[in-house]
Amino acid sequence: MRTRGIVLVLAALGAAGLWMVSDTGPSRPKHKARRVVDLRSVSPTSKRKKTRDLADVNAIVLHQTGGLLSADHQGWKKVTAHLGGAPDGTVFLIHPLEAYLFASDDLNRDSIAIEVSGNFEGEPGVYWKPGGGPHDLPAAQAEGVKWAMAYIDRELRKRAGHGVQRVWSHRQGEKGKALDPGWQVWSRVAMPMMKELGVVYDPNFARGGYPHPPSWDGREAAVLDGSLPTGEEMLALYVPHSDQDEHPG
Q1: Does pTM top 0.70 for this prediction?
Q2: CB 116 within 8 Å of CB 82
C-alpha cells in the first residue's frame, strides 16, 4: 500500500507539472529552445538540390544572417539553411537534414547548416555596417542554437549511426564570408558545444575559406597555415546572406 501511495503522489505531481526530471541524461536534451517551429512543409523545395545519405554527413556549419530576423519574421522559410536560431531562443526546422542545400559553399557536401539571426562582429569592432547593429548574442539565442546542435547530433546518432564529428564556420568554406558567424557565436556557442559533443577543434582548417583568427577562440596569438585577412579586408570581402542560394560547392 505504501508503494502504491508513492506512485499515486508522483503521478499527481506529474499531472500538476511539478515533477522535475533532470535533463542531463543521454536520452534527454541538455539545452532548451524557447520553442521549435517546423517549416519543412512550407520552405521552398527548389532549394533542396538532392537527397543525401546521412551516413555521409557529419559536420555542422554555423552562419550569421548579417541582419536581424525576429522569431515572427516571415522570411525564415526562405532561409537557405537546415535550421535557424532567432534572438528569443526560437529554433526553426527549415529543411530536412538529408537535403543538400547550396548553403555553405565548399562545405556543403557533408554538413548541416544553422543560420543564426543577427549582424555580429566578425572580430571585435569589425562588422557589416549596412546590416545594423552590431548585435550582441542573447543568452536565449545561444541556448537555442546549442539545442539545435544537440538535436542534429541526436538525429545523426539515431539515423546514421554516428554523431557530429566536426563543427565549422562559414568563414572556413568561403573567403567572402570572413565575418561569418563571428566571434560571439563561435566562442559562446561553437566552442562549448564542441567540448560537449566530443568534437576536436582545428582552427587551422579551411576548405575554400579562411582559418579562424585568435579572437574567435581565445588564443593569445596565432601563426596559422594560410593568410588571415585584416579587419578592412574582411569587410571588403564580406557578402551578406540573402534568401538566394549560396555557391553550389
Answers
A1: yes
A2: no
